[in-house]
C-alpha cells in the first residue's frame, strides 16, 4: 500500500532504513503546544519528548498478556478517510492546552504518537488547518472536510512523527495515557485521573 499525501505535502518522507531517530526524544520534539508562563518553547518542546522516551507506556491486558497493538486502524466518522499504523505507539498522553481544547471541542486532546514511517493513509485526503507555534513553525491539524472529525496533528519541526486523535481509532479502548500536560490551562470541569503525572505546561 502506497503512502498517500495531501496536495500540500504535510507528510514527511519516511526515515531511512536503520535511522531510529524518528522516535528519539532529543531529535523529535513532536508535540509542541503553547509554552507555559516562564517556559521557553525550546525547553518545553524537548521536555515532552524526553518524557515520551523515558515513560513506560501503560500496557493493554489481552488474555492475561500485557501488550500494545502492533498495528491498528482508524478513520473519520463518515468513513471518507481511513488510515493504518503498522507500529506500536511511541507516546500516549492528554494535552489540556487551549489550542487542543479548541481543536477537539472538549477538555483535552488524547494524543497517540506514531512514527510517520509506520503510518499509511489508505483512503481519502484530510483538510489541513495551520497555526503557528511560538517558535514560528507550522502546526498542522488534519480533519475530514465532510464530517469534521479531527484526525491528525503534524509538527513541522518533527518530520518523523504523526500524532493521532485517540477518538479516531477503530478501537480506542486500548488508549492508555501516560500523563497530563498543560494542566494549568485545564477547565474546572475537566476531571483528570489523579494517578497520572501532571505538568503545568510542557514537561522538563
Give the spatial strand order of the biggest sheet.
8-9-10-11-6-5-12
State the distance separating the first and last CA atoms.
39 Å
How many strands appear in the DSSP assignment? 12
Order of helices and strands: HEEEEEHEEEEEEE
Please state roughly what percent of the residues sit in beta strands, choosing from under 5%, 5-15%, 15-25%, 25-35%, 35-45% or over 45%: 25-35%
The protein's oligomeric status is: single chain
- Give the overall average pLDDT: 75
Q: Spans of 5+ residues with little confidence (pLDDT < 50)?
A: 5-66
Task: Describe the protein in words.
This protein has 204 residues and is mainly beta. It has 2 helices and 12 strands; from the N terminus they run H-E-E-E-E-E-H-E-E-E-E-E-E-E. Strands 8-9-10-11-6-5-12 form a 7-stranded mixed beta sheet. A 3-stranded antiparallel beta sheet has the order 3-4-7, with no helix packed on it. A two-stranded antiparallel ribbon has the order 1-2.
Features:
globular, 3-stranded antiparallel beta sheet, 7-stranded mixed beta sheet, 204 residues, mainly beta, single chain, 10% helix
Can you describe this structure in just a few lines?
The chain is mainly beta and 204 residues long. It has helices spanning 41-54, 98-104; strands at residues 60-62, 65-67, 72-75, 82-85, 91-95, 109-115, 119-123, 127-132, 138-143, 150-155, 161-165, 180-181. A seven-stranded mixed β-sheet has the order 8-9-10-11-6-5-12. A three-stranded antiparallel β-sheet has the order 3-4-7, with no helix packed on it.
What topology does this entry show?
Layout: H1 41-54, E1 60-62, E2 65-67, E3 72-75, E4 82-85, E5 91-95, H2 98-104, E6 109-115, E7 119-123, E8 127-132, E9 138-143, E10 150-155, E11 161-165, E12 180-181
Parallel strand pairs: 5-12
Antiparallel strand pairs: 1-2, 3-4, 4-7, 5-6, 6-11, 8-9, 9-10, 10-11
Amino acid at each position: 500500500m502506497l503512502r498517500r499525501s495531501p496536495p500540500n505535502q504535510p507528510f514527511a518522507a519516511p526515515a531511512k532504513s536503520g535511522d531510529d531517530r524518528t522516535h528519539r526524544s532529543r531529535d523529535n520534539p513532536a508535540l509542541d503546544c503553547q509554552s507555559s508562563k516562564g517556559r521557553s518553547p525550546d525547553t518545553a518542546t524537548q521536555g515532552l519528548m524526553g518524557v515520551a522516551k523515558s515513560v513506560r507506556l501503560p500496557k493493554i491486558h489481552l488474555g492475561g498478556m500485557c501488550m500494545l497493538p502492533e498495528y491498528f486502524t482508524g478513520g473519520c466518522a463518515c468513513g471518507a478517510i481511513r488510515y493504518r499504523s503498522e507500529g506500536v505507539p511511541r507516546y500516549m498522553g492528554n494535552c489540556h492546552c487551549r489550542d487542543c481544547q479548541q481543536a477537539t471541542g472538549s477538555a483535552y486532546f488524547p494524543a497517540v504518537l506514531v512514527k510517520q514511517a509506520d503510518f499509511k493513509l489508505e483512503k481519502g485526503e484530510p483538510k489541513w488547518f495551520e497555526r503557528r507555534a511560538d517558535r514560528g513553525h507550522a502546526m498542522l491539524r488534519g480533519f475530514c472536510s465532510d464530517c469534521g472529525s479531527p484526525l491528525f496533528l503534524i509538527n513541522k519541526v518533527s518530520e518523523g512523527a504523526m500524532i493521532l486523535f485517540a477518538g479516531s481509532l477503530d478501537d480506542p479502548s486500548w488508549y492508555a495515557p501516560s500523563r497530563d500536560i498543560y494542566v494549568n490551562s485545564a477547565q474546572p470541569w475537566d476531571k483528570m485521573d489523579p494517578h497520572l503525572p501532571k505538568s503545568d505546561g510542557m514537561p522538563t
